[in-house]
Amino acid sequence: MESIFDNVLMFVLGLIALSFLVTIHELGHFLVAKWNNVKVNTFSIGFGKKLFRFKRGETEYCISAIPFGGYVAMSGENPDSIEEGEKPSDRDFMGKSVGARAAIAFAGPFVNIVFAFALLMILYMVGVEEPYTKNLIVGFVADESSAEVAGILPGDTITKMNGKETQGWDDFREQIGVSLGAEVQLEVRRGGAPLNIMVVPQELVIPAQDSTGSPIRMGIGDIGIYPRNRVIVREPPVASSAAEKAGILAGDTIFEINGEHISRYEEVVRIIDGSKGETVNVTLIRNADTITVPLTPAYNEEYKRYMVGIQMGYVLFRETHVVRRGPVEAFEKTCATSWKMTTSIFRYFKRMFQGHVKVDAFSGPVSIVAVMGNVWMSGFQDFLMLLALISINLGVMNLLPLAITDGGLLMFLGIEKLRGKPLSLKTQSVIQNIAAAFFISFFVFITIMDFGKLSLFLK
Length: 459
Hints:
The chain is of the alpha+beta class. It contains 11 helices and 20 strands. The chain has helices spanning 2-35, 98-126, 146-150, 169-177, 242-245, 265-274, 327-353, 365-378, 380-399, 406-419, 425-453; strands at 40-56, 59-74, 128-131, 136-141, 157-161, 164-165, 184-189, 195-199, 202-209, 215-222, 225-227, 229-233, 253-257, 260-261, 280-286, 289-295, 298-300, 305-307, 312-316, 320-323. The strands form 7 sheets. Strands 4, 5, 6, 7, 8 and 11 form a 6-stranded antiparallel β-sheet that branches. A hairpin with a 2-residue loop joins strand 15 and strand 16. The mean pLDDT is 84.
């Protein structure tokens, strides 16, 4: 019951976050349209059937059934609503100058980008968790992974990637993620002189099963290395289980079992199931104390293996500290981060055309909502960083010249400025209808893939 509540809360929080970004985007269009005396008929958060509505002045404000977007409906903006040769009224969108229409179109993405920039500035001045070192200390190497085949060992320190100094785990994962099937050169410190190791990322596959019973293929590269971490007992043990009887508590670190060091929860599952019901000695770390308790696993008919009644999770070794910056440093850091966020989508597209990223890597609205809600529940600062990332990408994506986006409208306005007259209403309508059909098909395709990934987020 608790897990169902957590899953519902995750999606509610994710929808609130996404709706906020959509609201400020549409608010940008709305305010600039009003500034230019354009009649706004509807301001909607969401698409489809209107669930809640009220009217103030000439504008209807509403929340609609499909929460993955929104719109501002302005008088005279749809080419289909205007007869060829008909002159738009002074309050119609099409009756305004090219400059005014461009300002209205640009305002939505602009607000998203400015919001992300301001949020990052505040975060960097308040203080964010950052690694003590940008080098990567390997805590675990997965069996039969690219890293194991290449000879990377736990305890190795990765200092360079393709000749450039590493910038922490997040940047490393991104670079590996867009290098599927490509050779990557790593400089590794292991005691003495640095080693140069070539590794080829393979596709990241998540053991969690999708609706067809198959592992989930993520479409990005992975080499199978992880930071140093601790395996912890995530929640109180199951009532009357071996773990509860032994006095194990939520938050305990599982350090060793039968003298074998534990660095992955899979190792706990392997040892417990491999005991075939014989007692095992589990060494725990609780605060500053080390405790060893005997556990006798019991066979679970539902899962078809021996269990002791605990749910596990990971906690990273604390390798970070809070960094606070003054306004100048925060501005410089924000500029660098904003640029990286702004260009990330183009790096992914480039790598996709090169074959180093698969289409499975794309996330649709369902995954985005799930991720935002999940991160919000895990840590508010991480959520704010993610909110900035998605906001800036929402702004950038909407500026792309893709016919039905704000960038597409800006493209039409640019053509109108150069020609001295707009494209015919029939031509605009045909282009927009074709683009709409394509994007609706793409939206459905991505959403279907999203539902296949839902098990990654459900608790």
